Structures are given as C-alpha cells and as structure tokens.
Amino acid sequence: MQYAGTMNDPMATLYRQESRRVFSTLVRLLGGFDIAEEALHDAFLAAAEQWPRQGVPANPVAWLVSTGRFKAIDKLRRQKRFVAWDEATEQTEAVADDSPGWEQLVDDAQAIEDDQLRLVFTCCHPGLSEEAQIALTLREVCGLATEAIASAFLVPTPTLAQRIVRAKAKIAAARIPYEVPGPADRPARLTSVLRVVYLVFNEGHAAQAERLAVEAIRLARLLHSLLPGPEVTGLLALLLLHHARHAARLDAQGDLVPLEAQDRGRWDTAAISEGCALAEAALRQRGFGAYAVQAAIAAVHGEAPSAEQTDWPQIVGLYDVLLRIEPGPVVALNRAVAVAMRDGPEAGLQLMEPLMPMLSGYPAAPAAAADLCRRAGRLDEARRHYLDAVALARHDAERRFLSRRLAELSA
Q1: With 107 labelled, which of 138, 206, 264, 406 sits at a CA distance of 20 to 30 A?
Q2: Computed over its alpha carbons, how large is the radius of gyration of the chain?
C-alpha cells in the first residue's frame, strides 16, 4: 500500500520531495529494491498516522529512514529470510531502536546524499543494457510509475515491467555493488550515468513529455551537487538551455514550431541565464568534453536576440571542436546544417551528401536534407526527403510538422 494524499497535503509534498532520498538509504540498509520500496511506504503510512498527534520530528528524513528500516527488519525476522547487502547492513540488524549509533547514522546528511549517488550508479551499471538502465533509473531513482515510463517510451506496460524485473534480478545475481565507483573506475562509469540522463531528457524533449525532461534535469542537478566536474556541469547547462525553449516549441494546436520561428519572449530567461553561466564554467575547466561544447552551442542560440542575429560562424567553430572530441555522422550532420546557415543551403547539402547513407535510419537526417533542399529550391529532392522523414518520425507533433511542410511544397 502506498501513501496517498492531495497535492496540497503536507505529507504528500514531503513524499514528492524526499521519498527517493529515503528510498536510496533504505536500499543500502535493507539490501534490495523491492523491500526498500515496501519499507518506504510503511514509513510514510506510519508518519501519516503519528505525526498529526505527536508533531513532525526535527529530522523527518532520518525518522522515515529509521522507521522504514525497523518495520522491514521486524517483518523479515518474522519471515526468517533477512538477507544483508553488505557488512554495514549486517551491523545495522543488531542495533536497537534507541541506539545512539543508529541516530548518528541517519542524521548524517552526507551519508544520505551519498546513498542517492550510489543508487544512480547502481541503476546505470554498464552490466545492464541501456534500455534497462533508463527504465531502472526512472523507476527507482525518480520514482516514476511503471505505466508512466512505458507510455513515455511507447512500449507496453508489461514489457517495461519485465525489463525492470530482469534488471533487478541481474543486479542481485551478478552481485553488482551498491556503491560509488572508486577514482580509477569513476570516469568510465560516470560517462554511462551521464548518457542515461541525456537519453531520458532527449526522450522527454522530443515527445513533449515534460515530466521526463524535468526528472532528467533533477538528476543532472543531483550529480552536479554531489559530483561536480566539467562534463556534469556541461550536461546540466545543456539540459537547462534546451528546456528553456519548451513553452515555445508547440503552437496552440500542438504542432511543432521550428527554432527560427519560435517566440523568444516565451523562452525561460532564468533557465537561459543559469545555463549560459554553467556552460561558461564548464569550458573553463580542464577536461571538458562533448556535453560542455554542446551546451556552448545551445548558449549561443539562447543569447541570440532573434534567429537572424544568431552567431552562426561561432556555432560552426564550436561544431569543429565537437567533431574533434566526438567524431561521427550525427555531429557532422549538425555541423553541415550550421554551415548551411552561415554559407547557404548548397554548402550544407554538399557536406551532407556523403553522410546520408550512414544515417539511413536517423529521422533528423532526411528532415534536415529536406529543409536545405527546400531552401535551395530543389523541390523534387525536398519532397523525397520529407517523405522519408515522415516515415521515420517517432512523435505525432514532428510527423504533423513534416507532413505540413510536404503539403506546402505540393501547393
């Protein structure tokens, strides 16, 4: 049974704000996802019953962790099947309810914050498939319902549920440690974590699923607060700058509005300011990478007063840097579009032509080629590319936009 309350219920607010922090510590103390989830809800139900009579404790998170843990251990002792995750968990089993050592443990704010980081690294472990990493992160770190995740990724709920079950089983069977990697392994593992956050945001951004985009930003903020570095800073900047345009990306009918036609008065100026400052900070740090450079490109767009005043030479220069850091056809395609905006559509099409066979299943490739052909007056080629783009489009708003452009050519 889960705690339920109205949006204005203080307990419901606390649940939205703190439940995943409590959950991450319970995972460490109890040794598994499912038992921690059950303990979490038992703790909130106990709080809903006791706090109105006894008052809210000075440290609600610590109280919830302590209550959830002891309720779970009592239940497990009755069932005679308590299994510890690690030595720290084994030690907590013998601690009494009034133990000062236990209070010190749950009052340690840094330990609880570290637990969130442990949970993120566990869910994004490279031993899991990318699909499993994304599903598990959204379910366990963000607390999204399985149905909501399945809907966002356009897969049946039972399929998504099985993906999560298999990921948990693999973590248990492979004894994947619930820990933050050591200094030697951290860079590679962090790359995996950042990619998951980036993919979650991209899916939310493309599908206009704002909840996913917001959760990705929340995860990026968490990583930035606990594990700052140039690429973490760059990723947070990139997500903020893209999400700042969210309100202007669709018109009143729910159709996609391209960047050059967006009402910039509807952009979130606070998010743009924060994103630009973070992008600049990321580029000042040694070891910056692809996310920092992408954030710098987004910052140039965000700071331009209008589409006509966009600094395309600077954007092309940044894509040159990005292509050296992360060579590949997708980056080269985006650079070709930037060159087209700087030098004209024919220049961009010349660069794009050898890339198209490598991007045959990538929806943005025929869409970009169609747009440049339209601008260059090569209308027959534009029609062919628009047809390919419509066939590959994954979201309704994108499909309607491309179909409308195709109809305009015919007219």
Answers
A1: 138
A2: 24
Which tokens belong to 46? 């106990």
Give the integer Cα–Cα distance in Å for 189 and 122: 10
Rounded Cα–Cα distance for residues 64 and 396 (Å): 43
Residue 298 pLDDT:
97
- CA angle, 213 then 199 then 125, to 5°: 120
SS3 assignment, position 246: helix
Sequence-distant (≥ 6) Cβ neighbours of residue 193 within 8 angstroms: 120, 121, 124, 223
| CA separation for the pair 323, 291 (Å, rounded) | 12
pLDDT value of position 8: 52
Q: Is 180 helix (H, G, I), strand (E, B) or coil?
A: coil
Q: Which residues of 30-66 are buried (b: 16+ CB within 10 A; e: fewer)?
A: bbbbebbbbbbbbbbbbbbeebeeeeeeeebbbbbbb
Phi, psi of 250 (to 5 degrees): -120, 145
HEC-encoded secondary structure of 195-228 = HHHHHHHHHHHHCCCHHHHHHHHHHHHHHHHHCC
Residue 117: its pLDDT value, please? 84
pTM: 0.80
- Whether the predicted pLDDT of 380 surpasses 50: yes
Task: Look at residue 167 and tell me whether its pLDDT is greater than 80.
Answer: yes
Amino acid symbol at 82: F
Per-residue exposure over 206-225, b if at least 16 CB sit within 10 Å of its own CB, e if not: bbbbeebbbbbbebbebbbe
State mean pLDDT over 301-310: 94
* Residues 30, 40 contacting (CB under 8 angstroms): no
Q: Which residues contact 219 (CB under 8 A, 6 or more apart)?
A: 120, 137, 141, 142, 197, 200
